[in-house]
Fold this protein.
Amino acid sequence: MWCGCRLRHLCRVIEVNRPRLRRALLAALIAASVVVPVTGAARPAAVPAPVPATLAPLRAATPAVLAERYAASRDGIWAAERMAAGHGDRWRAAMLRAMADPARRFLSFDGRDGGRAVEVFGDLTAAERIAVLVPGSDTDLDKYGLLRGGSMRLRQALGDRSAVIAWLGYRTPGTVTLQALMPGRADRAAPDLRAFVRELSAVKPGARVSLLCHSYGSVVCGRAAPGLDVADIVLYGSAGAAVDDAAALRTRATVWAGRGTGDWIAHVPHTRLRLPFVTIGFGTDPVSPRFGARLFAAGDGGHSDYLKAGSLSLSNIARIVSGRAPAEAGRDA
């Protein structure tokens, strides 16, 4: 709550000033009001974890091959659990024990540097529709429950013959940091997301694959999008995709955008400022007509509510992944 209020206040200050002053204000106010309050804050990256074993690319999506991959990832989770326990971090160790449950399915896992994990919800072997969720800032192993919960609810909404993949495949920036306003983390994440989606498409050539990109995840998807063979790219809770319009994504996918009326991200300035050594901001608002995305109604939820049970946004995202038209606001979803 503090983060949203603080950032909303900062953005309103910026918006009321003349354009010629925005460059200086954005640099100075963000540095003073965003970065300073979290200096020295503890990050989950402080918990040590072992180097994971190198996994060979998936050669097929058969039950036997997937079981082997899930088992290898589980071994890596147990190794990280032992190291976290030895370090005295009981919270992380408990989280990892839950993740190592044989009923859960991880295609990959790396506990270092805040953690990375790729988890499958549903039967990937039989899936005809696959949604790949790319989370935004402040997503790590200690806060993984929000991503997992949304993935489970989306999988339930999609029904049989579907799978949802939670792709925490990069080190996300903190929400209240300057990195959350810059594309650097996305630039480093995009090649891995692109490689993952291409590998997934190779082992599931007949499946309909959609990229679902929340918040800063939209920047990751924007960087990974060119040439990527997916059916849909869905931007939600997004401050921008680091491009001027949907055409600049250079994709054959249908590009969708939605934002809840209670989402504080609407107050973030939709601009890109190129300073001498850094670019700040992510360009055109994805829900604006100028961006050119197809819009879907996302209800009145806040920034973390898009996959909330019973929400219009969850229903419409599930419709898009299924290849159906989203429902309008006020209509039965």
Notes: The mean pLDDT is 88. The helical segments are 2-15, 19-35, 63-87, 90-99, 144-158, 184-203, 217-224, 312-321. Strands lie at 105-110, 116-122, 129-134, 162-168, 208-214, 232-236, 254-258, 273-274, 279-280, 294-295. The domain at 115-321 is CATH 3.40.50.1820 (Rossmann fold).
